[in-house]
């Protein structure tokens, strides 16, 4: 560990055996990153860098540019408080209060799921399959607004509605929309389609809850801090996906697409539900890890 000794002179403050004043080790950026200890995190170095940059109120690149720079007492205290929270298991995104998704930086809060890179597959697929011209789009269970805002930012001609049954999520998504000044998105309080009686869309997509209630993963890692309302969907994890597939045809324009994220082992079951619901061109697509992560189909109205 590299430290720098700082002697602060204070008159009349002479302790037995010590140099007048007192000495204190001050830590540099580099030394703090070297000793940072996050045994339970899958990404300890990244986490420590993000938390240190936040404690300094600087971008992460600053750490590499100024490895010898020393933190003042307030910055050290802030960093150690952040690290303590992370050691207790709290996700970095909740500590920082924001998270990147697609090209956007989004405010996050504990009442919503933290947007994940896997979910960018829904955005990519929507951009690939649907024309860039005017289109009504619905994002069910929008949380931070991640999917809706990513699509709104890429397709100015699309009109994107995001709904959530958690009112705090709707308010959070709206704050994200305002900060990003995306006038072609809006957010509503609705449990799936409950507040959308007559509306129809050319694209409906969702990252709904899809974890089985007895899944051991719910007791491990970052997910413990996320709301179970955004994660858990009955004994087989498919309760919400079933509800969405059942109701979606009444809200799709003819030929409109329904795209759903699901668990790595649920693709076949979701395709079967889409087939049984009368959807066509049903298929699944793989995420960056090579796992079937979304399934989709379109609904032709005779
Ligand atoms: N992919 C998330 C996870 O496994 C779950 C997200 C969800 O249920 N929609 O942690």
TrEMBL record:
Protein residues bound to S-adenosyl-L-methionine: 141-145, 164, 192, 207
Keywords, ordered alphabetically: Methyltransferase, S-adenosyl-L-methionine, Transferase
CDD domains: AdoMet_MTases
Reaction(s) catalysed (UniProt annotation): L-glutaminyl-[peptide chain release factor] + S-adenosyl-L-methionine = N(5)-methyl-L-glutaminyl-[peptide chain release factor] + S-adenosyl-L-homocysteine + H(+)
UniProt cross-references to SUPFAM superfamilies, sorted A to Z: S-adenosyl-L-methionine-dependent methyltransferases
GO biological process: methylation
Gene3D superfamilies associated with the record: DNA helicase RuvA subunit, C-terminal domain, Vaccinia Virus protein VP39
Lineage of the species this protein comes from: Bacteria, Pseudomonadati, Pseudomonadota, Gammaproteobacteria, Pseudomonadales
Database matches in Pfam families: MTS, PrmC_N
The protein's enzyme class: transferase
Segments crossing the lipid bilayer: none
InterPro entries for the chain: DNA_methylase_N6_adenine_CS (IPR002052), HemK-like (IPR004556), N5-glutamine_MTase (IPR050320), PrmC_N (IPR040758), RF_methyltr_PrmC (IPR019874), SAM-dependent_MTases_sf (IPR029063), Small_mtfrase_dom (IPR007848)
Organism: Ectopseudomonas alcaliphila
Protein name: Release factor glutamine methyltransferase
Domain Release factor glutamine methyltransferase N-terminal span(s) in chain numbering: 40-97
EC number(s) stated in the UniProt entry for this protein: 2.1.1.297
């Amino acid at each position: 560990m590299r430290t720098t000794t700082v002697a602060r002179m204070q008159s009349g403050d002479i302790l037995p055996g010590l140099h007048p004043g007192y000495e204190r080790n001050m830590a540099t950026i580099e030394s703090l990153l070297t000793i940072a200890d996050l045994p339970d995190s899958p990404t300890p170095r990244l986490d420590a860098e993000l938390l240190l940059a936040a404690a300094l109120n600087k971008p992460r690149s600053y750490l590499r540019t100024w490895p010898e720079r020393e933190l003042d007492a307030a910055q050290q205290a802030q960093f150690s408080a952040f690290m303590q929270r992370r050691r207790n298991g709290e996700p970095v995104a909740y500590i920082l209060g924001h998270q990147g998704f697609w090209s956007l930086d989004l405010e996050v809060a504990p009442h919503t799921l933290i947007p994940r890179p896997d979910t960018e597959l829904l955005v990519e697929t929507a951009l690939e399959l649907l024309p860039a011209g005017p289109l009504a789009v619905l994002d069910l269970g929008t949380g931070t607004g991640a999917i809706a805002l990513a699509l709104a930012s890429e397709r100015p001609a699309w009109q994107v509605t995001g709904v959530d049954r958690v009112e705090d999520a709707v308010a959070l998504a709206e704050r994200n929309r305002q900060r990003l000044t995306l006038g072609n998105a809006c957010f509503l309080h609705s449990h799936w389609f409950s507040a959308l009686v007559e509306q129809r869309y050319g694209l409906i997509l969702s990252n709904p809850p899809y974890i089985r209630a007895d899944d051991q993963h719910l007791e491990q890692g970052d997910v413990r801090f996320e709301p179970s309302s955004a994660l858990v969907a009955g004994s087989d994890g498919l309760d919400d996906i079933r509800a969405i597939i059942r109701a979606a045809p009444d809200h799709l324009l003819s030929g409109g697409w329904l795209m759903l994220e699901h668990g790595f082992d649920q693709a076949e079951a979701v395709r079967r539900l889409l087939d049984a619901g009368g959807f066509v061109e049903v298929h699944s697509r793989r995420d960056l890890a090579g796992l079937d992560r979304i399934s989709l189909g379109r609904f032709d109205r005779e």
